[in-house]
């Protein structure tokens, strides 16, 4: 058994070694990229029924010196596993808070807020609430202009911790959106117990509403549920004018997707509101 074990190991060795190498290389690279500030938030506008800017979601982009822009799915899971998400998450929160404060000083207090994605590990770090409060204080960002996007996986970790943290942050004006709604477990349980402000309908349902009767039924039900619970609701992944019409007819007041804009760098995003008209 030992010999065959060794053989088996040797047989898979090249593949395993490549995986390990890539992982180690990427972990080292993410660490280096953090030190060299190669990450940057891009902003994707969210619009209301009249097409006006109603918010934005900050999405991290890695401007790699050789590989160009690396999408988050290629390093966020690794950052979560290795704990680098604490540094990366802090960096994103700080950059967004500074940006929000800068926009406020040129454009006055906008009615909309910028949403930042927060990983489960980051949210459940014992210092998370204090970290956000310190950033708000240091940057002068209005807490009302900061929204945190959590996924159900965050909520699953520790419900009591989640609720007490949300309440503390909300007491300063920070709001909460539940991302990827409908794709996790026990969604209704969370809706009943958590002090949420908004739910975000996952794009996997949104995309299908015109072709798939089940997607349409699910989206209709989520919108009705959100409204009856007094929560705002936003649909992500809107790529088609007719999808927006469907959603609007069902009572969804906010949209995000390629139909309006892809996530764009700060200066491009500023044209959406500093130069007056959106779109
Ligand atoms: P997410 O939070 O669900 O973000 C929405 C994703 O859908 C983004 O991909 C966005 O670019 C994309 N998207 C927006 N509108 C459309 C559309 O109309 N059609 C299509 N096909 N896609 C659309 P992105 O930027 O690649 O981010 C992927 C995921 O990476 C995010 O999913 C989020 O889970 C994670 N992520 C991104 N930035 C951060 C961050 O700063 N921190 C953490 N913890 N996670 C992040
Ligand atoms: Ca999100
Ligand atoms: Ca999402
Ligand atoms: Ca997601």
TrEMBL record:
Keywords: c-di-GMP
Protein's UniProt keywords contain Hydrolase: no
Gene Ontology terms: biological process: cellular response to nitric oxide
Domain called EAL: residue spans: 23-277
GO molecular function: cyclic-guanylate-specific phosphodiesterase activity
Superkingdom of this protein's organism: Bacteria
Coiled coil: none
Protein name per its UniProtKB record: cyclic-guanylate-specific phosphodiesterase
UniProt source species: Thioalkalivibrio denitrificans
Shown stretch of the complete protein: 532 to 810 of 817
